[in-house]
Amino acid sequence: MNPALDHELPARIVQWARELGFSDAGVSTRELDQDHAHLRAWLAQGRHGGMAYMARDPALRVEPERLQPGTVSVISARLPYRSAQAADPAQVLADGTRAYISRYALGRDYHRVVRARLRKLAQRIEQAIAPHGYRVLCDSAPALEKALARDARLGWIGKHTLLLHREAGSWFFLGEIYTDLPLPPPRTPAVENACGRCSACMRICPTQAIVAPYQLDARRCISYLTIEHHGPIPLELRPLIGNRIFGCDDCQLVCPWNRHAQLSAIPDFAPRHGLDAARLVDLFAWSEAEWLARTEGMALRRTGYTRWLRNLAVALGNAPTSAEVVAALRARATHPDAVVREHVHWALARHGESAAHGQ
What's this model's pTM, rounded to 2 decimal places? Predict the structure, then answer.
């Protein structure tokens, strides 16, 4: 059988993907010239902040055949991640004594979960169709994942720059299979952009990082500041971060299309160690050994221990003043890392205290 002539193949791939837990899948065209131009403009404005890797060979992101030689088709898939077992995000955000962690990072590292399922999908295709050269990706190599998923008819890119779908919302991971199989391109029209006049995501953003519809300035984004950014967090943005210590979900929480978004039934994404509503002072007391043990196999590892403490210091500076909070901060006032130490001193000052007071 010549797979290029099998116009039912994409439908079969979707079925196999759903059997593996994906909510949907599709084949993209790989024509990303406009997205490449958008990326270049974003980089030229410096909106990638300190993410130097974004500016390194940006054309690589729109040329899949350079990442996986021989690639002629890209299969994109969606995997829902928001767990029904996690504490209510609004309640956690409203409680300044608790730490808010983006819902995607509460369970097992999504890179591993998604890639493992994509490999099974690629192998299923191989068993049913033909051997093929392929590579699986999930936020793990230079790729315009949202653009590829949009072109695979998995949704539209919303004003907050995330992929959206009427039934699925945006609480999902994206992954790709780069393959040398000549798969039929989509026969259906692109998914209609249904953001309309809504600008809820832009209004809710604590730091106003969505500077215009479909335009995000990472330098102001809490997800960037708490995960990707090294060094001190800008002073003017610290109070706006609130109790968010790893990422930010505000634009998703307010999006109307997420009101009935599909929840995940995948055990890997269930919260670990009570991190869906943990107390800030408890997390701040973790030693590096405890942090390494309790974040093993989780996306939280991306921050590193000192940035974890830096972020918690900011959140404690924004927390309601209490003897417990002040004591927790004083315990780290002489931390050997200069960035952590400075953020702790800033936090103490927010509570009308000095690092030396009471010592």
Answer: 0.94
